[in-house]
Amino acid sequence: MEDASVCPRDPNAFCNVDEIDLYEQIETKIETLGPTKVESPYTNKGEIHFVKDDDRVLVHVSEKSIKRLIEEGKEPLSFEFAGPREWIYFDPSKVKAAIVTCGGLCPGINDVIRAIVMSLHFGYGVKTIFGIRYGLRGFIPKYGLPVMELTPSFVEKIHELGGTILGSSRGPQPIDVVVDTLERLNCSILFIIGGDGTFRAGAKIVDEIKKRGLKISVIAIPKTIDNDIYLVSKTFGFETAVEMACQAIRCAHTEAVGAPNCIGLVKVMGRHSGFIAAAATAALREVNFCLIPESDFDLEGENGLLNALRKRLLLRGHAVIVVAEGAGQKYVLGDKVEKDLSGNIKLGDIGIFLKERIKAYFDSLNMDCFIRYIDPSYIIRSVPANVDDRLYCANLGQNAVHAAMAGKTGMLVSLWNDRYVHIPLSSAIKKRKQLDLSSRLWLSVLESTGQSCLKN
Hints:
It contains 14 helices and 17 strands. With 456 residues, the protein is an alpha/beta fold. Helix 4 (175-184) packs across helix 5 (196-211) and helix 7 (275-284) crosses helix 14.
């Protein structure tokens, strides 16, 4: 059996198991606030499958990899299994929890909020749940943002809405003031829903909590539409994003075949990772060129995009291009680099650049060319989650609650090898996940588009 480079439930793969070297050292131990001495309320809820801390999920699941490690006297890398514990750390009757959402919008945020509230209230009997407004700003007194009281009746229908009922924001805030507010609220648990930057802030919050000797659990739920968080097979909202991107691509294809020498050009989200572009391309099979940040491409020359487009139009009379927002930045970024409030480099607009550059190229050849440009970015990230993402969000939220009540901290809930696991924040922020150009997903893209003529 070969090494599993894909998630078992999905042969097209978004989890990149093979991005972790067999011998890579990754911290997998989860911090706890102390011994668990409180019997879980779930013991009175019928037959419950409780999980123990020594229940593990292997990182590499192939027989070949495990056998190789055992023969070399090495312990196979594994993650702690997520799920309800029979004994927990917190007394539910005395717990106050808070939820905060940070960074950009993503389908499914409200679903995660709802799942956390419902699980805390009905599963553990926690009555006080605070919603922190507009990201970490909500912790800072100078902004004057009151907390929201989250109850089952309040969150009952929020999963039908896009965005986040709590609001969100970007940018750093003073960590000591954040922890001051947690103390004033007498908060025992903080759930943070966000991406890489949010996790880095979360790790600092954990450090400040430990520095003060406090007993506050910090649990993260990975949120990024780009699917680029390390050690997370798939982030919530990604499937919805791909589905919405496919709708835009179908429209672009319809436009392209509806006029002579017409090009449908679609820009999708993906600052550093081209998972949305690649997955939508593989799903539709109507795309002729898929451009992603991980794969360099030339515009000019025999193997450049422009010449390939010319040949395509002469042969078929139409073409469809899907480009991730972070692709081709060498053409558009310029000398002056600006950053947003989160410290991310502000990208140049590759979509507009390609539209104008392609038009100029065909004009120079005195060849008719019509371009239909579609940028659905904000529509994609603002819609409610689809059914698959809703189920995923519910599981993430529930497992986050189980981890928090058991006194886990400084960790995120992840899906790995089709199992929910606990990942230390310190490990998840080591690097960014990118699409492996030797993966079956990218091979599927190349087979579908036939774009192997472009430089990689």
